[in-house]
Amino acid sequence: MTARIFKPAKNAMQSGTAKTREWQLDYEPEVPRLIEPLMGWTSSSDMQQQISLHFHTREEAIAYCEREGIPYQVIEPKPSARRRAAYADNFAFRRPEPWTH
């Protein structure tokens, strides 16, 4: 029962960074998922996959794992490369391709 401690990635469907500030603890699957033959649904008998704990800091998550005796793996977040752009850049003369409707 190994745990992963990580910061969740930004939602790809929105530009905001909500729900990415806290650290998350998820358990690695111990039992492979099975495909149910009649309906084709994917299922698992591993109940630990349903647990997801959230912590304010990485140190809190590590302290929880050490207190409970859970082996853990910390995955450091990658810094986001944000490109600053203004609305006026859409109509700039130096734009590589002309703006059209």
UniProtKB/TrEMBL annotation:
<keyword id="KW-0679">Respiratory chain</keyword>
<keyword id="KW-0809">Transit peptide</keyword>
<dbReference type="InterPro" id="IPR006885">
    <property type="entry name" value="NADH_UbQ_FeS_4_mit-like"/>
</dbReference>
<keyword id="KW-0813">Transport</keyword>
<protein>
    <submittedName>
        <fullName>ETC complex I subunit</fullName>
    </submittedName>
</protein>
<dbReference type="GO" id="GO:0022900">
    <property type="term" value="P:electron transport chain"/>
</dbReference>
<keyword id="KW-0472">Membrane</keyword>
<feature type="region of interest" description="Disordered">
    <location>
        <begin position="1"/>
        <end position="20"/>
    </location>
</feature>
<dbReference type="InterPro" id="IPR038532">
    <property type="entry name" value="NDUFS4-like_sf"/>
</dbReference>
<dbReference type="Pfam" id="PF04800">
    <property type="entry name" value="NDUS4"/>
</dbReference>
<dbReference type="GO" id="GO:0016020">
    <property type="term" value="C:membrane"/>
</dbReference>
<keyword id="KW-0249">Electron transport</keyword>
